[in-house]
Design a protein that fits this description.
The chain is of the alpha/beta class and about 240 residues long. The protein contains six helices and eleven strands.
């Protein structure tokens, strides 16, 4: 997926989520030393890296293949010397980049990104990532809600949000969209209003594979790992083989 038309809106709506994630990150990785290494797969604009840097002293590795998102990530690192010193950025796409990473990792973050990968890429990702996690290390992974088995009415599954920047209101609507055959895709509509008048609309349609906790557990277990509850319905902890 390319973010060249919608990257400007990304952090407006994703950053608030990370305020609620910081305690979870701190619980798992707050005690790590500066010799430890944490991997962020699909780092985007770096908002997750910023949260990590605030709760752990570990060295950070970011994977972000999209050039537009990576531009924002590099701009963030360019204005934070301390964070730049402890962050290495890889531009290749997961899972293909995994062979370039260190043999031992003390943690991995996979936030809102697994749905971009198809089943084969996810299988390769877990096969390559799990052996790199130290026995005591974990990967934190976001999951999609489990389906409730009923047909939803048109628009019922849409998620909307709004933010203000100066005098302009920015809104977004996310909802499923039937793209790429039987797999569920997504439709995102971003709009900007100024004094009651719409001045911008950007529409993004792409593939998104809904990775529920059930799907995650099956795929991780097939690769030799296990999945634990974290107490947060959005997150699961993946444990490597011992």
């Amino acid at each position: 997926m390319a973010y060249d038309r919608t990257a400007e809106f990304h952090e407006l709506f994703i950053a608030p989520l990370w305020h609620g994630y910081r305690s979870l990150l701190a619980d798992h990785w707050g005690a790590l030393s500066s010799q430890a290494v944490i991997l962020d797969v699909g780092a985007g604009t770096g908002v997750g890296l910023l949260a990590l840097a605030g709760v752990t002293a570990a060295q950070l590795i970011a994977i972000e293949p999209d050039r537009t998102m990576r531009t924002a990530l590099m701009a963030r690192l360019a204005t934070d010397v301390v964070m730049a010193e402890r962050t290495t950025v890889f531009t290749e796409r997961a899972p293909h980049v995994m062979s370039e990473l260190p043999d031992h990792l003390d943690g991995a973050l996979l936030a809102h990104m697994l749905g971009h990968l198809d089943a084969r890429d996810r299988e390769q990702l877990w096969t390559l990532l799990l052996p790199r996690l130290r026995p005591e290390a974990m990967a934190l992974v976001t999951v999609s809600p489990e389906p409730d088995g009923r047909a939803a009415a048109d628009g019922e599954l849409a998620i909307t949000d709004a933010r203000w920047v100066g005098e302009r209101e920015y809104t977004v609507s996310y909802q499923p969209h039937p793209v790429h055959g039987p797999e569920r895709g997504h439709l995102s509509v971003y709009r900007v209003h100024h004094r009651g008048r719409q001045v911008t609309e950007e529409i993004e349609i792409g593939a998104w594979y809904p990775i529920t906790a059930t799907v995650l557990a099956a795929e991780v277990e097939a690769a030799g790992g296990a999945v634990l509850e974290t107490g947060n319905p959005t997150w699961r902890a993946v444990v490597t083989r011992t």
